């Protein structure tokens, strides 16, 4: 229930709807009970058992309120029977219709108001999870399945809405219906009502026994749901590889095994849940049969209860069954909702390791240099970088080269503060980047990655991501610098062309040039290029390389390069091996040393 309390925090902005729902549910419960009581005079008239009241009753205070209401009603009935029995029956039937109408009206209004609360909380929880996803560091998601995160923001949030938030209705509506019903039952016959009190605790105990394992089973179901969503996501994003390696059967088996496990868990879960309703109904009917036998004796043998009152009492007793069933179902919903809410708060309560310092400054300009001073870093146990140091002066192009796994891309991740260093410091204009706000730091930088990360949207919106409110002219200028306008202008819809999921309607070179155009439009003073041409063919590489040269003019650039032909004009080339610098200098200087760099160049000349 701790998670239920946490979820309720999201309901605070919508408390006015909760109040209106409670008011409507009070009236619903009241009219639900009165609608059954109104059947008593109908039966009494039909069987000529009406208690005749010849004189209009006088109100004597709260102590005699019940007798006054009954006598006043019977006086009105007596007056109408004396005039015309059909008229009296019509009047009582009209009262019954009005009471049932008011009951259903307030039932609808209660559901109407709670809808705004439920959907508002649903939206706010999803927004909170999405905000947290954006706030958490990249490292958090490198350890998680995407499908599991998607499952939490979809299936788990839906479970919270259908379980926890539906309880908000039951908390007032069903208990009040039971309270009002039992109150009137006690007034009508305290002896018979005792049997109802026997039913409720027995039912509650049996239902709790059935529902003990629900939370753990629900948790297993949600985890399995996240796993199979991950399989779907991986299959969709890797369909070419799956088909190319004839791996359809392997993935089919993995997916089938997952859905089979999910089916087995859900079978057990739903069968336990479905057991609640028939169990509570059977227990209710069992008690009603006892009441029927005992009350029948009071009417037929003892004569201590009139038939009309007994029939209405039976109606009220049955009226308790529906809310009792709903409450028993709610106990299951709480357990399922608790499991879903726990998974939601595992994300919401995760502490981000990459946060702004309390006194972090807003850095608006880049003026001198980037200093990487004696840094060491590890993703897990082994250091990827060891005591690494370089300076990148303003306006210079520094290239990092080396074999795969030497730590080149890690530098890009650390400079942009996707990760924090374990030792040492990275400084921009002499200020540790941990003392600069993440937003202002990244505002100074443009990033072009090896994999062109584009969105299923128009060219305009993909390129425009780099600058809010960019004009068509600015976007076109950026596309021209990136050598992308030559193919964009020939597209039927131009800037409004949708490029498909991950830009898959375009070639690799076209996608990369759009990524460069996005960085150009942002116009940052510092550019990070992480193997921006390594995945391209020779022709595309030539066009992209020209675009990169255009972009790097008058900018400070850190270039992580796989193809050494692309960085020959760099101001400094840093050769890395296993997280350390083995040599550095300009292209000609490094060739003249005939060492590691020359070997890399010779190896590539044979590729």
From TrEMBL:
CDD domains to which the protein is assigned, alphabetical: ABC_6TM_MsbA_like (cd18552), ABCC_MsbA (cd03251)
TM region positions: 20-47, 88-117, 170-188, 194-211, 282-301
Membrane topology: Multi-pass membrane protein
InterPro entries: AAA+_ATPase (IPR003593), ABC1_TM_dom (IPR011527), ABC1_TM_sf (IPR036640), ABC_transporter-like_ATP-bd (IPR003439), ABC_transporter-like_CS (IPR017871), P-loop_NTPase (IPR027417), Type_1_exporter (IPR039421)
Molecular function, one GO term: ATP binding
Main location: membrane
Oxidoreductase recorded as keyword: no
Domain ABC transporter: residue ranges: 370-603
Subcellular location: Cell membrane
Residues of the ABC transmembrane type-1 domain: 19-336
Coiled-coil spans in chain: none
PROSITE patterns for the chain: ABC_TM1F, ABC_TRANSPORTER_1, ABC_TRANSPORTER_2
Keywords: ATP-binding, Membrane, Nucleotide-binding, Transmembrane, Transmembrane helix
Stored SMART domains: AAA
The protein's name in its UniProt record: ABC transporter ATP-binding protein
Organism whose genome encodes this protein: Salinimicrobium oceani
